[in-house]
Write a structure and sequence with these properties.
alpha/beta; 8 helices; single chain; nine-stranded mixed β-sheet; three-stranded antiparallel β-sheet
Length: about 290
């Protein structure tokens, strides 16, 4: 089903938002868009909604399975405004959001659906799940100059750091961390300070007065925590070519970067076990 505007979708597509989990995929460009949609369909979302410019098209088989809303995802605040409007129409529903060329992975996702994941997480009295954005990049920029190569993807096996988050007065915030690493850390001279964090609350349950903020956090503190007070909880990862795309499309950085690989690069295996072994996702009590 195609919707001409977000308003059109919210007026006529209410049934889509009545049962979750729902995936919102925002297309900043058409690079790896169909691959992103196929990946999330396989995870078992009840609905996958693609927000994309009118000039982008999907093949017929994919179009039949994905709800399409015409939207230009620029400036970047458009995405946050859209998520917040969707939330108001989907109270009590689990929502996930990401951009094209990004892929959700969670412990044992090869055999367990995202619905099972969130049912378990809900039983642990959690209404949000921390996801780390793990940068993917092509192994050869001469062959793949835009930095995107799903069949030849690399990631950093080390170099990830956690820092206690503080409020405006300098007081530490309980169970909140600022995460850094990947391309945003290694090429930080080309990344604005406020864009260097790799933590994102990408899975959350909509509720009244909840708002997603432009730094990928929420206006409710508990939604921004990585675990409950009693024990570690599940975490997930969004494996993402987004930073690589940006660094190679920006005139201020592309000529300074001839290769993303370094001594700590390893091939990405497209498997949750690799992310578990590297400590990039946490199983918690999920068996």
């Amino acid at each position: 089903m195609q919707y001409e505007t977000l308003d059109h979708f919210l007026k006529t597509g209410g049934a889509i938002l009545s049962k979750g989990p729902v995936a919102l995929i925002f297309a900043e460009d058409d690079i790896e868009l169909e691959g992103t949609l196929h990946h999330h369909l396989k995870l078992g979302f009840k609905s996958v909604i693609a927000f994309l410019p009118s000039e982008f098209t999907l093949d017929d088989a994919l179009s039949a399975r994905v709800h399409q809303v015409t939207l230009t995802c620029a400036p970047r605040t458009v995405v946050f405004d859209t998520v917040n409007r969707i939330m108001q129409a989907a109270q009590g529903i689990w929502i996930y959001y990401c951009y094209n060329a990004e892929y959700l992975f969670y412990p044992f996702c090869e055999t367990r659906s995202v619905g099972e994941l969130l049912a378990f997480h809900s039983e642990e009295r959690r209404q949000a799940m921390l996801t780390h954005v793990i940068d993917l990049y092509a192994n050869d920029l001469a062959t793949f100059p835009n930095g995107v190569a799903p069949d030849h993807a690399m990631l950093d096996r080390t170099g990830y750091y956690a820092h206690t988050r503080h409020d405006a007065s300098g007081k530490p915030l309980e169970r909140q961390l600022d995460m850094s690493g990947g391309l945003r850390w290694r090429f930080e001279d080309h990344i604005p300070y406020e864009r260097r964090r790799i933590d994102r609350i990408s899975l959350f349950k909509a509720k009244p007065d909840l708002m997603l903020l432009p730094d990928h956090t929420f206006n409710e503190a508990e939604y921004n925590t990585h675990a409950c007070p009693w024990h570690n909880n599940l975490t997930a990862a969004i494996c993402s070519f987004r930073a690589a795309k940006a660094l190679k499309s920006n005139a201020g950085s592309t000529f300074d970067i001839s290769d993303f690989c370094w001594s700590r690069s390893v091939p990405f295996e497209w498997d949750s076990r690799q992310l578990l072994d590297l400590g990039l996702i946490e199983p918690g009590q999920w068996f």
